[in-house]
Amino acid sequence: MGKDRSTRGRGTASILPNGGAFGWRSALALRFHTQEELRGFSRKTFSFVLLSIAILTLLGADSGPARVNDLGHRMMCVCGCNQILLECNHVGCSYSDRMRTELVAAVDRGENDDMTLQWFIQKYGTTVIAAPTDKGFNRVAWIVPYLVLVLGIVLTAFIVRAWKSRPLLAHAGVPQPAPSADIDRLREQARRETDL
Amino acid sequence: MSQIGSFALILALALAGYSFFFGLISLWLKGPVAERLGETARRAGVATFGVIFLAALVLVICAFSNDFSIAYIYHHSNRDLPAPYKFATLWSGQEGSLLFWSLLLSAYGFVLRLRYKTDPRLFAYASVVIAAVQIFFLLLLNFAAHPFALMQGALPDDGTGLNPLLQYPEMVIHPPMLYLGYVGFTVPFAFALGALAMRYPGEKWIHITRRWTMVTWGFLTCGIFLGMHWAYSVLGWGGYWGWDPVENASLMPWLTGTAFLHSVMMQEKRGMLKTWNMWLIFSTFMLSIFGTMLTRSGLVSSVHAFAQSSIGDWFVVFLVIIFVVCLGLYLQNHKHLRSEHKLESLISRESSFLFNNLLFLVACFTILWGTLFPKISEWVQGTKVTVGPPFFNRVNIPVALLLLLLTALGPLLAWRRTSWESLKRNFKTPALGALAIGILLVAFGMRPWQDQSYFYSLMAIMLSVMVALTVISEFVRGGRVIAGHTGQGLFPSMLQLTRRNTRRYGGYLVHFGVIVIVIGFAGSAFNQDAEKEMAFGDKLSIGQYTLVCNSYTEDDNPNYGSQWAVMDVFKNGKKLATMTPERRFYKASQQTSTIVANRSTLAEDLYVVYEGQNQDTGRPIIKVHLNPLVMWIWIGVWIVIAGTVVAMIPNEQAVAARVVATARVVRAEPVGAGD
């Protein structure tokens, strides 16, 4: 057994980057002889994951009240209270009671989410939807924050890289850092003595 | 009385003007004349506080004496308003709140100008900047939003009263806290601008402003959470944060201020991020002003906003001036801000601060973007859209989770560089602990794959556990070392450790408070609610609770009439309590307000709202929310405040060193020097 396992490991080393390293790559390397076998396994795993997601999605498909709850939290009450439709707590609010009834009716008719929301937009205007839709210019609202995050990460990485290679400021009054070896020795000493 | 108030405001403007112009001239000139002129400018600044205080006092006296000849008092008070709320009249409307802003700014300026001996020149610069900001608010008060404007025509017999939503004990302290936070950021801004203008050598100005910044941050934190608690207790929709533009306005400077409190450590310890810190504090101040504008200009619609008015233009001009001045001074002096050290490794405390700052700023930008997008959409496509909680939650929760991950990692990273081995060794326990909690929660029925909110909730709890374990391990590790040296027990050692480095361990306490708050937030994924028209004896069930309507009753006082329901609460068949949700009708303003009955435990809040009566059937409507873990939010806030206070206490060794130095100075003085 021991011999067999080590042969498998050597045999797959060429198809995996860092094949000789420990960890999940090594574990996979022990399992498969060839690249085809590994691909086959990947396809099966991918299909299994997809199937699982589909089953879970179907299992979790919203029932009527759950859909009303979900859609009702994606719309605003239009009475001017700036509250989510299902959270509007104005007794006698001329809008929220009627809108809730209309929402229940739309869900009972079997209309899908898009149709229901479109119906409300037609009747109450675009401001009835609690978040920008994923269409036209409104898409910009969603894209920009993620774009800023990605650009920010890239920029920060760039800054880190640039700062690693830039020269130090040398002017009077600013003590220059001690040689790295000294710093490491002093730091180790400080850590040993205080460990704080 | 109104004439005294008006005169005080004009005098305050003159004094602030003097403090600014002659302070500026004294900085430009040199020699004894400049010193004397600077001293008069400083004293004028000190006097500004006295005069603005007089104006504010006059307004409060007018509220107490029911002087309805003053329009502001007529619109925000009435004869039967209880005394604490008459006092709160000062900040409950546009003009009064601007006067309050000005008063707090002058109070900060007063303290700053009294402590000028710490560093006279830097304080003189800061004093000039504060005077300039003061001038803006006094111009507004004198010419655009006069709090002592008189009523036209016949004098009314009674006022229209204070907004009912504001008649709640927390509203007496929430706005002052928030304003102390907003206004307080003027002080670090003033020091930063002054330091930039005078090319201040070294990082001493950062040390001077650190405590100011922390006090301000602490006030803003208190203000934000008091506002959340007020919203939770009064608005009656079962939540505490609605991503309303005015809530967002308070969160934005808090985010940049928090980023500043972190990144400033890099400047102090490593002489890095000087430009970044400068712009962070500039941005924080500008966001404070922007938030003040947002509340008042009618730029965006909000349930909190004051009436729409033209003062938004004043704020826009002021913001442009601030930006131009900051940019001009930066361009003139940016060479002075060059970094003294270079970054040595990606895995270091420095880079964790960089990424921490990035995430804070992305969160801030996202909130700003979402708040302004309705307006942008209106300009671009001619139609307004709503940007509400679904948007903010979807884009901000992932950023917040990343921040939590950094909070867990950051303390484990050393300055300059950390080895992978060291990181893995220190991170193993927190990571395994978090994983164990995650598995346990799933085993006990949490299903993160069923709903996105469940997934976020699970991640938030796991990451919070990770942060908690990191914080605990930091305390225990340090405590053990001290215990080894001194032979004390672990707990006294940890206490001593905290006293030795209050800033670091106070900061860890703040982190711990934050994760307790996050755990409270995570509970919101499992909120439930139920609503029912309930007659006597009717039952309503939610979770393990059953509410039985016992009776309805009414009361009346000069300020408001009230109706409330008396509900018996049972849990698993056993009676727990009687709850009395209330609905009030305020006579002067002819408006209604809810007073929620809330039974709060560590596990969950049973939150009962008496919504009123169905107009068709005449039957009372009761809405019940079951909100898990909410109490942890308020507990977390107390921990954050405690941590902030600890971080502001001077280190034990520093105090001891100062005492020794003072003793040396005393010993060195010649005999009879004190005679």
In words, what does this structure look like?
- The complex is a heterodimer of chains A (196) and B (675).
- Chain A is mainly α and 196 residues long.
- Chain A folds into three domains: 2-59; 64-128, Orthogonal Bundle (Helicase, Ruva Protein, domain 3); 138-194, no CATH class.
- Chain A contains eight helices and no strands.
- Chain A has helices at 2-12, 24-31, 35-59, 64-72, 96-108, 113-124, 138-165, 180-194.
- Chain A is elongated and about 75 Å long.
- Mean pLDDT of chain A is 68; it is low at 1-30, 55-61 and 170-175.
- Chain B is globular.
- Chain B is of the alpha+beta class.
- In chain B, α9 (204-235) runs antiparallel to α10 (245-270), α10 (245-270) packs antiparallel against α11 and α13 runs antiparallel to α14 (389-409).
- In chain B, strands 2, 3, 4, 5, 6 and 7 form a six-stranded antiparallel β-sheet that branches.
- Chain B folds into three domains: 2-394, no CATH class; 404-525 and 635-662, no CATH class; 526-631, no CATH class.
- Chain B has 20 helices and ten strands.
- Helices cover 64% and strands 11% of the residues of chain B.
- Chain B has helices at 2-28, 32-64, 71-76, 83-88, 94-114, 120-143, 169-184, 186-197, 204-235, 245-270, 274-297, 311-333, 349-381, 389-409, 420-443, 452-486, 490-500, 502-522, 630-648, 652-668; strands spanning 528-533, 539-542, 545-556, 560-571, 574-579, 582-586, 591-595, 597-600, 604-613, 620-628.
- The interface between A and B is large, with 54 and 68 residues.
